[in-house]
TrEMBL record, chain A:
This is 3-oxoacyl-ACP reductase. Pfam families: adh_short_C2. Belongs to the short-chain dehydrogenases/reductases (SDR) family. It comes from the Bacteria. GO terms for molecular function: oxidoreductase activity, acting on the CH-OH group of donors, NAD or NADP as acceptor. Residues 200-381 form the Ketoreductase domain. InterPro entries: KR_dom (IPR057326), NAD(P)-bd_dom_sf (IPR036291), Sc_DH/Rdtase_CS (IPR020904), SDR_fam (IPR002347). It comes from Intrasporangium oryzae NRRL B-24470.
TrEMBL record, chain B:
Coiled coil: none annotated. InterPro entries: 3-ketoacyl-CoA_Thiolase, Thiolase, Thiolase-like, Thiolase_C, Thiolase_N. The active site is at residues 97, 388, 418. Keywords: Acyltransferase, Transferase. This is Acetyl-CoA acetyltransferase. One of its GO terms (cellular component) is cytosol. GO terms for molecular function: acetyl-CoA C-acetyltransferase activity. It comes from Intrasporangium oryzae NRRL B-24470. Residues 14-281 form the Thiolase N-terminal domain.
Length: 439, 431
C-alpha cells in the first residue's frame, strides 16, 4: 500500500494536481565538470583570486560580475573572508542577489568567511558569524535543487578553501545544503582529480548493504582498494559488494575485542597498508526511554560507539593507519537533534560526534583527519519500512524537499577521504538537504 | 644447437583458504537451488574473500555426484556466472564422495608440475534438486521414433509405448552392482567388525559438540558465507547427547545387530564448497599467506562386489600406502579428518588399523598401524554434524583442516574420505 502511495505521489497525475515535485538533483559523475559555467566569483576576501584561478584550471568559465554573464549562472562564489564590520555584509546582497536570481537549476551558492573562533575583536566575530545566518536562510529560499553552503577559513592557506569550495560546487554535495565547513592550514593535493583515492586502501564497516555498500562503491570508483567489513551473517551480501568493487570481504563483528587488530592485519598483509577507515556499521533498537531495556540500550551503544573507540586504538597504533590517513564516522542527525524513541541511538551518535572532535586534535600532527557525516533522511531499506505518512513527512521536511540517496552520504565521505581534504578535520558534515530537524 | 628445456622440479602447492555455503538438510532452505546456483555462491564467496574479482586463474575443478544431464559442463558454466575472469578454464570431475578432495589433488598436482599457478577446487551437491529422468523404456522408444525415417516407422516405434514407461526414473542411493544402499553395506561391515551402538552415538555426539564449538568461537567466520538466509549448518544439533541419540531406532541392518540410526548416519544434504590453491610464488605475488601445503595423496579401491571387502573400506588401504611413500607412521599426525559417512565408518577404519591380523593379511604390514589419539580426530566436527553434500565434503575438510593447522602454528594432518563404488581418497596437509 505504502509503495503504491509513493508511486502515486510522484506520478504525473500528482504533478498536475499540484503536489510539489522534487527537482532531480545533479549528482557527481566522474569526468564531468565540477558545475555549470559561468561561475561568478566576487567579494573582497583573500581567497577570491586563487579560487578563480583554480576554477579556470578546472575548465570552468568564471566571471567577476553578473553583467559579464550572458544568460544564466551556474554557481556563485562570494568571498567575504575579509569582512570586519556589519556594513561589509551588504556586499553579499549587492553582489549575490542579481546572480542568485539568474541561478540555474541545481546551481550553487558558496560563501567564504573567516572562522569566528580565530578572531578576537567582537565586531569582527559578529560580522563573520552573520554569514552563517545568511547562508542558512538562503538555503531555505533557493529552489530547483540549488544549495547554499559556507566555508570558514582558519588562516590564509588556500588549499583547504579550494577543496571545500570544489566539493560544494560539485554534484558530490547534491544533498548537502545550508552547511558550514571549517578549513585549517592542512594542505594536500589530489594528484588525479578523477581518481583522487588512487592507491589508497580503505576499510568500510557495515558494507554489506545500504549506505555502507554505496560508500564502498564510491570509494572504489574514486580509485581506492576497498576492504568491505560486515558481520558474518551478512556475508553473502558483503561478498557481492566486495566482488562488485573488486575489493575483499572480511566477515567480522565490529564489537569483537580483536576486530581492530584483525582489520589492520588484513589491510596491511593483503593490501600493503591502510589509509582510510569509514566507521559506518550501526544498528537501531528503538524504544521509548521509559520502556528501554538493557539489551536495546547496550547493544546500540556497543555497536555504534564503543566499537569505534575500541577499533581506533588498533587502527591508530604502530604500523596501522598511515600518515595522512583518514577516519570518517557515520553519525546521524539523531545525534544532533535527537529523535523520539531513540535515546540509545541518539546517545551513540552524539557520542560519535564527541569522539570525532576530540580525536581530531590528538592525531593532527600525524596528518590524520577525523570527521563525521550526519545523514538526514536517506532512502534506504531501513527508511522504506517507515509508515507512508511519517516517511513522506521525513522525506520532504528539508530545503530540497526530498530524501537523499545512500550515494549522497558516500560522496561526502569520499570527499573527506581525499588527500586534498587535509584541511578539514574534527568536523561534522550533515548530509540532510538542510533538514528542519536539528537545524 | 638449441638447448633442451630442463625438466622442472615439482613445487609445493599451497592451500590458501576456502569458502563454503552453510550445509542444509535436503528439502530445506536450498530445495530450489540448483547445483550451479550453490557452486556459484561458494566460488563467489571465495572470490570476495581473496579479492579475485576479474582474476584469471589457471583452472577451476569441481563436480557433483547427483547431476542433471544438462549440467554436463557444470564447473565451466559456474565460472561464467562468477566474478572470475571468464577466460578461466574449468572442468568437471566425479569420484562420488571423493570428488571434492580429488578435485583439490588435481589442482595441486598441476600447480606442483608448474602447469598452472593457481586454481580453485570445489564440489557441490543437491539431494533436493535431484535429476529425475524418463524411464529407460520411454527413452528407448523415443530414440527409436527419432531414428525412424518414415511416418509408418515412427508410428510403429511409438506403438511400443506402455503405461509403465511413464513412471519416471528417480536416482537412488544404491550401489548398482549389489542393489544395496550405502547404509546397508556399512551395516554389514559394522556387524563384521563388531562396532557397537554406544561407540557410534558417542562419535556422533562429539561431531555435533565439536562443530558447535567451532561455530561459537568464530572458526567459520572466514570459511563460510551465508546463502539464502542460512547462516549456519542446519543439521547441527548443539545440544545433541549420547542419551538422546540412544533413543533413535536403527534404520540400517537387521534385528539385534542393527546399530545404525539417523543420528549416527549422515543425512541427505545440500551444499557447496570451494578451496583456493596456488604456488608459493603466486601466493606471494597476491600477498596471500598459505594456510597449509597439500603434500601428497593416494586413492584406493576395494572389491566389495564379490564380498572381499566392505564398500567403504578403501581408505583403510590407501592410508598405509600413503604413509609408506612419505616415511610416516599413523601417529605422526597432529590432526585427523576422517569423513563421517557413518559413525560406523570411522570406527571400523580405526579398528582395522589397530587389528594385527587385518593389517598383516589385508594390508601386508608387519605390524598394525596402531591407534590414534582420538582428541585429534575431527576436532571441528565432521559430516555427522555438518551434513554431507557428497561432492562438497572434500572442500569443507581441506579448508577447515588447513586453517586449523595454521591456527595451531603448524603441524601435519591426514584426510580420509570413503566413496561409493568401493573407493577411497586420502591426503596429507602440512603447515
Amino acid at each position: 500500500m505504502s509503495d503504491f502511495l509513493s508511486t502515486l505521489i510522484g506520478s504525473p497525475v500528482a504533478k498536475r494536481v499540484g503536489v510539489p515535485q522534487p527537482t532531480r538533483l545533479r549528482r557527481y559523475e566522474p569526468g564531468t565538470p565540477l558545475c555549470d559555467s559561468p561561475v561568478l566569483v566576487a567579494g573582497e576576501g583573500r581567497f577570491a583570486a586563487s579560487l578563480s584561478e583554480s576554477l579556470r584550471a578546472a575548465g570552468l568559465v568564471t566571471v567577476g560580475s553578473v553583467e559579464e554573464a550572458i544568460d544564466t549562472i551556474g554557481a556563485v562564489v562570494l568571498d567575504l573572508s575579509s569582512a570586519t564590520d556589519p556594513e561589509d555584509l551588504d556586499a553579499l546582497r549587492v553582489l549575490g542577489a542579481p546572480a542568485v536570481k539568474r541561478l540555474r537549476t541545481n546551481g550553487r551558492v558558496v560563501v567564504i568567511g573567516t572562522d569566528p573562533a580565530t578572531l578576537t575583536d567582537v565586531t569582527e566575530v559578529a560580522t563573520q558569524r552573520a554569514l552563517e545566518g545568511v547562508v542558512r536562510s538562503l538555503g531555505k529560499e533557493l529552489r530547483r535543487g540549488a544549495t547554499a553552503n559556507l566555508v570558514l577559513a582558519r588562516g590564509d592557506a588556500s588549499a583547504g578553501a579550494w577543496s571545500a569550495v570544489g566539493f560544494f560546487l560539485s554534484g558530490r554535495s547534491a544533498y548537502v545544503d545550508g552547511q558550514v565547513v571549517r578549513v585549517d592550514a592542512g594542505a594536500g593535493v589530489d594528484d588525479d582529480p578523477v581518481k583522487p583515492l588512487d592507491g589508497r586502501v580503505a576499510v568500510v564497516t557495515g558494507a554489506a548493504r545500504g549506505i555502507g555498500a554505496d560508500i564502498a562503491r564510491v570509494l572504489a570508483r574514486d580509485g581506492a582498494t576497498v576492504v568491505a567489513v560486515d558481520v558474518p551473517s551478512a556475508g553473502d551480501a558483503l561478498a557481492r559488494v566486495a566482488n562488485e568493487v573488486g575489493g575483499t570481504a572480511l566477515q567480522l563483528d565490529v564489537t569483537a575485542p580483536d576486530t581492530g587488530t584483525r582489520i589492520v592485519e588484513h589491510a596491511v598483509s593483503r593490501h600493503g597498508g591502510l589509509d582510510i577507515v569509514v566507521h559506518n556499521a550501526g544498528i537501531t533498537r528503538d524504544k521509548l526511554f521509559v520502556n528501554m531495556d538493557e539489551a536495546r540500550w547496550s547493544s546500540v551503544i556497543d555497536v555504534n560507539l564503543r566499537s569505534i573507540l575500541r577499533m581506533n586504538e588498533a587502527l591508530l597504533g604502530e604500523g596501522a593507519l598511515s600518515e595522512g590517513g583518514r577516519i570518517v564516522c557515520v553519525a546521524s542527525i539523531a545525534g544532533i537533534a535527537g529523535n523520539r524513541g531513540q535515546t540509545n541511538y541518539g546517545a551513540s551518535k552524539a557520542g560519535v560526534i564527541g569522539l570525532v572532535t576530540a580525536l581530531a586534535d590528538q592525531v593532527r600532527d600525524r596528518g590524520i583527519t577525523v570527521n563525521a557525516v550526519a545523514p538526514g533522511f536517506i532512502e534506504t531499506e531501513m527508511t522504506a519500512r517507515i509508515p507512508f505518512a511519517t516517511r513522506e513527512i521525513g522525506r520532504r521536511m528539508n530545503s530540497l524537499q526530498q530524501g537523499g540517496k545512500p550515494k549522497d552520504v558516500a560522496e561526502a565521505i569520499a570527499w573527506l577521504s581525499q588527500p586534498g581534504a587535509a584541511a578539514v578535520t574534527g568536523q561534522v558534515l550533515r548530509v540532510c538537504g538542510q533538514s528542519l530537524l536539528g537545524a | 644447437m638449441a638447448s633442451q628445456p630442463r625438466p622442472r622440479a615439482p613445487r609445493r602447492a599451497a592451500v590458501l583458504g576456502g569458502n563454503r555455503i552453510p550445509f542444509a538438510r535436503a528439502n530445506g532452505p536450498y530445495a530450489k537451488a540448483s547445483n550451479q546456483d550453490m557452486l556459484t555462491a561458494a566460488v563467489d564467496g571465495l572470490v570476495a574473500r581473496f579479492g579475485l574479482a576479474g582474476e584469471r586463474l589457471g583452472e577451476v575443478v569441481a563436480g557433483a555426484v547427483l547431476k542433471h544431464s544438462r549440467d554436463f559442463n557444470l564447473t565451466r558454466e559456474t565460472v561464467l556466472g562468477t566474478r572470475l575472469d571468464p577466460r578461466t578454464p574449468a572442468y568437471d570431475v566425479q569420484q562420488a564422495c571423493g570428488t571434492g578432495l580429488e578435485a583439490a589433488i588435481l589442482v595441486a598436482n598441476k600447480i606442483a608440475l608448474g602447469q598452472i599457478d593457481a586454481g580453485i577446487a570445489g564440489g557441490v551437491d543437491s539431494a533436493s534438486d535431484a535429476p529425475i529422468a524418463v524411464s529407460e523404456g520411454l527413452r528407448q522408444t523415443m530414440l527409436a521414433a527419432n531414428r525412424a525415417k518414415t511416418p509408418a516407422q515412427r508410428a510403429k516405434a511409438l506403438a511400443g509405448l506402455r503405461p509403465g514407461h511413464f513412471v519416471p526414473s528417480v536416482p537412488e542411493n544404491l550401489e548398482p552392482r549389489t542393489g544395496l544402499s550405502m547404509g546397508e553395506h556399512m551395516a554389514l561391515t559394522a556387524a563384521q567388525w563388531g562396532v557397537i551402538r554406544e561407540a557410534q552415538d558417542e562419535l556422533a555426539a562429539a561431531s555435533h559438540r565439536n562443530l558447535a564449538s567451532a561455530w561459537d568461537r568464530g572458526f567459520f567466520d572466514d570459511l563460510v558465507t551465508p546463502y539464502l538466509g542460512v547462516t549456519k549448518d542446519t543439521n547441527l544439533r548443539p545440544d545433541s547427547t549420547v542419551e538422546k541419540l540412544s533413543t533413535l531406532k536403527p534404520v540400517f541392518g537387521r534385528g539385534e545387530g542393527a546399530t545404525m540410526t539417523a543420528g549416527n548416519s549422515t543425512p541427505l544434504t545440500d551444499g557447496a564448497s570451494a578451496v583456493l590453491l596456488a604456488s608459493e610464488e603466486w601466493a606471494a605475488e597476491h600477498r596471500l599467506t598459505p594456510l597449509a601445503w597439500l603434500v601428497d595423496a593416494e586413492t584406493a579401491a576395494v572389491d566389495y562386489v564379490h564380498g572381499d571387502e566392505g564398500l567403504l573400506m578403501a581408505p583403510v588401504y590407501a592410508v598405509p600406502r600413503l604413509l609408506a611413500r612419505n616415511g610416516l607412521t599413523l601417529q605422526d599426525f597432529d590432526l585427523y579428518e576422517i569423513h563421517e559417512a557413518f559413525a560406523a565408518t570411522v570406527l571400523t577404519t580405526l579398528k582395522a588399523w589397530e587389528d594385527p591380523d587385518f593389517c598383516r593379511e589385508r594390508l601386508g604390514l608387519d605390524a598394525p598401524l596402531g591407534a590414534i589419539d582420538r582428541a585429534r580426530l575431527n576436532v571441528n566436527g565432521s559430516s555427522l554434524a555438518a551434513g554431507h553434500p557428497f561432492a562438497a565434503t572434500g572442500g569443507r575438510i581441506v579448508a577447515s583442516l588447513a586453517k586449523q593447522l595454521k591456527d595451531n602454528g603448524g603441524g601435519r594432518g591426514l584426510i580420509s574420505i570413503c566413496a561409493a563404488g568401493g573407493q577411497g581418497v586420502v591426503a596429507i596437509l602440512e603447515a
